[in-house]
Write a structure and sequence with these properties.
It holds the Pfam family AMP-binding. With 713 residues, the chain is an alpha/beta fold. It has 24 helices and 31 strands. The relative contact order is 0.09. It binds 5'-O-[(S)-ethoxy(hydroxy)phosphoryl]adenosine.
Length: 713
């Protein structure tokens, strides 16, 4: 694989852009296209249109007027718009029903979201086979470029044909171990090509993957495995990041030793970067230390030798689940967000194409981990559905030094680069020379996601990284939304540093007043809701539709509530102002305060904990923990460190309390509810504006907390 060449800008455009009339597409899409040469290829076919003719979506959105015209149609006639969008994909059976959704829980139907409900499709087929099927030369196009943690001389490229072969073989390994359509399979993997192989193999056979971020601890892994009743786990022996190895398989062993995971029958273990002999650190010395449970644990490279590379994609209903992804909520256990097949792929595919102005042959790189939604939608599914060449980066932005991203961009001639503000802010602390000594001429577009990007970071990203040449595509969206919801379209309109600008096609934003719960007319600032459904949105929480309705649809009946604040300016530009609930967004990670409180309260010395966020210029938010201790326990530096450690052990190393504030008491209402509003004001700090404290059972505690808080000193 390492010898394969990168096919750049040399694909046979004539062969791909054969105009196909809509009528022939619709006729052919009702047949089995696998045996029919007349297949759906509408999006590519329309690239020759320079003006939008309303019969098919254009390849590019070039102006604000064009956006507005298409946006208007997408709102006026969502069935028509999303039918055209679905024509970008190949279906075994093209849907006759496009949109069938209900957002109002008060109706007899209740909240119920269905898109393309009689369509039959396979996601893996659309990401891999389809491209080769339409143009055989694509077989040799590079699909994934692997950039290992340690920058080595050699490059590891995998073509579409090679990726497809590996996916088929691994799908057969899954089948051999009894995995069937609808079964849940848990992945616990680092950023390696094998993670994409495993996800796509699940999609190919209709298994529902649940990827757990590689930083989570055994407790959290166990909770997420048992939460979706997985009996098969896919992992790697080790992961390597920033020069340190992490024993993923051993963490799985620890999770499986817990009672709740007793149903797990099979653990499939990839060797980290099996066969990549050029890697300096191939982990072979560590491999000897692994424990092995015979009959349960299997090496994937050995299993792959026992299967062939023939595997027909499973025909999936558009509303069959594609994956479950856990995300932190403001209360309770993590939520198992359920995304389905046809709508999710249509939405991620279209948003990728427009928001990043993707051209065939472009090299694209997204630094998000596959354990988060950005990794699902914009490392794996969106790019591959658009036949992109994607860089998979195993490491971190500061290793071996802070030029790493910019060196990778030069090495692979990356055209589109998508990262998080937290990475930008940490890199801009250092001398600009770390950036300017690199070339970066290949860059065309710079993306941002995960938290609000402050204008200072935006400007640095734009001027220093992008040489004032590349638009910053600030994309606002969520695990629950499946894909990008508010974002600029490159070069179609003016940007304002810090604003995600306008909603994507089909997305109707609506602001509400937090107190009166009344809708607000822009320009205004309020809580952000979405007025109607879009194909990429989550359908439910795994086996808990009631909680789904409670969390997202009860606050503002008839609307999807995002949990974010937003300001819409007179020019219509949207400015996201951050979470309005008890979810912290720290360095791009969502952290539920309730989870941290539970972790602290597990400690034998702790009576009660209350966790709130405060603004932090580098990490977006810092984590502030108020802790009350059991009667005889004295606060100490040692205990403080121990509590920090136990939070990290309990949840994961990415969760780090910045402040532990020991106190004798917490401000509570007379009914015993902790007044988080007051705690937030104390740590912001904005103590001149505490609001009404008269309902507290002990108003003096507020003064004491202010006096002792390191944030108000
Ligand atoms: C925040 C990540 C401002 C927001 C795709 C949201 C953002 C939460 C932006 C979802 C942005 C994400 N500007 N805030 N461009 N992107 N957020 O589920 O608070 O990991 O609700 O999805 O991140 O985080 P999640």
């Amino acid at each position: 694989a390492s010898s394969s060449t990168l096919v750049k800008n040399s694909t046979n455009h004539n062969a791909i852009h054969q105009p196909v009339t809509q009528r022939s597409i619709l006729l052919s899409s009702t047949n089995n296209y696998l045996s029919n040469p007349l297949v759906t290829r509408l999006c590519r076919a329309t690239s020759t249109h320079s003006i939008w003719n309303e019969t098919a979506l254009p390849d590019k959105i070039k102006t604000l007027d064009e956006y507005k015209a298409i946006y208007a149609l997408s709102i006026k006639d969502p069935n028509r718009f999303w039918k055209m969008a679905a024509e970008c994909l190949d279906w075994y059976q093209f849907p006759t029903k496009i949109k069938n959704t209900e957002f109002d829980y008060r109706t007899s139907r209740g909240v119920d979201i269905k898109w393309y409900e009689d369509g039959i499709i396979n996601v893996c087929y659309n990401c891999l086979d389809r491209h080769i099927h339409h143009d055989h030369s694509i077989a040799q196009q590079v699909a994934l470029i692997f950039e290992p943690d340690t920058p080595t001389e050699s490059r590891h490229h995998i073509t579409y044909a090679e990726l497809l072969r590996d996916v088929k073989k691994f799908a057969n390994v899954l089948k051999k171990h009894g995995v069937k359509k609808g079964d849940r399979v848990t992945l616990y993997m680092p950023m390696v090509i094998e993670a994409c192989v495993a996800m796509l193999a699940c999609a190919r056979i209709g298994a529902v993957h649940s990827v757990i971020f590689g930083g989570f601890s055994p407790n959290n892994i166990a909770e997420r495995i048992s939460g979706c009743d997985s009996t098969v786990i896919i992992t790697t022996d080790f992961g390597v990041r920033g020069g340190k190895s992490s024993p993923l398989k051993t963490k799985i062993d620890q999770a499986l030793a817990l009672k709740q995971c007793s149903n797990v029958k099979t653990v499939l273990v990839f060797e980290r970067n099996h066969g990549m002999t050029e890697l300096k650190d191939d982990c072979s010395h560590l491999r000897k230390t692994l424990e092995w449970t015979d009959g349960r644990d299997f090496w994937v490279h050995k299993e792959m030798e026992t299967v062939n590379d023939k595997c027909e994609p499973e025909r999936m209903n558009a509303e069959d689940p594609l994956f479950i992804l856990y995300t932190s909520g403001s209360t309770g256990t993590p939520k198992g967000i359920v995304h389905t097949t046809g709508g999710y792929l249509t939405y991620t595919s279209l948003t990728f194409k427009y928001s990043f102005d993707y051209n065939p042959g472009d090299v694209y790189m997204c630094t998000a981990d596959i354990g988060w939604i950005t990794g699902h939608s914009y490392v794996v599914y969106g790019p591959l559905a658009n036949r992109a060449t994607t860089v998979i980066f195993e490491g971190i932005p500061t290793y071996p030094d802070v030029s790493r991203y910019w060196n990778i961009i030069d090495k692979h001639e990356v055209n589109i680069f998508y990262t998080a503000p937290t990475a930008i802010r940490s890199l801009m602390q250092h001398d600009d020379a770390y950036v300017t000594k690199t070339n970066r001429q290949s860059l065309r577009i710079l993306g941002s996601v995960g938290e609000p990007i402050n204008p200072e970071a935006w400007k640095w990203y734009h001027s220093v990284v992008g040489d004032n040449r590349c638009p910053i595509i600030d994309t606002w969206w969520q695990t629950e939304t499946g894909g990008i919801m508010i974002s600029p379209i490159p070069n179609a309109w003016e940007l304002e540093p810090g604003s995600a600008t306008f909603p994507f096609f089909g997305i109707q934003t609506q602001l509400f007043d937090q107190t009166t719960k009344k809708p607000l007319k822009p320009p205004n600032h309020g809580e952000l809701c979405i007025a109607d459904s879009w194909p990429g949105q989550a359908r439910s929480l795994y086996r808990n539709h009631e909680r789904f309705v409670d969390v997202y649809f009860k606050t503002y009946p008839g609307y999807y509530f995002t949990g974010d604040g937003c300001e819409i300016k007179p020019n219509g530009y949207h400015w996201i102002t951050g979470r309005v609930d008890d979810v912290l967004v720290i360095s791009g990670h969502n952290i539920g305060t309730a989870e941290v409180e539970a972790a602290l309260e597990e400690h034998t010395s702790v009576t009660e904990a209350a966790v709130v966020g405060y603004p932090d210029p580098k990490k977006n938010q810092g984590m502030y923990c108020f802790v009350t201790l059991k009667g005889n326990v004295k606060p100490s530096e040692e205990l403080r460190k121990e509590l920090i450690r136990s939070v990290r052990d309990s949840i994961g190393a990415h969760v780090y309390p910045d402040v532990i504030h020991f106190t004798s008491n917490l401000p509570k209402t007379r009914s015993g509810k902790i007044m988080r509003r007051i705690l937030r004001k104390i740590v912001e700090p904005d103590t001149s504006n505490l609001g009404d404290t008269s309902t507290l059972n002990d108003p003096t505690i507020v003064e004491e907390l202010i006096k002792n808080s390191p944030r108000t000193k």
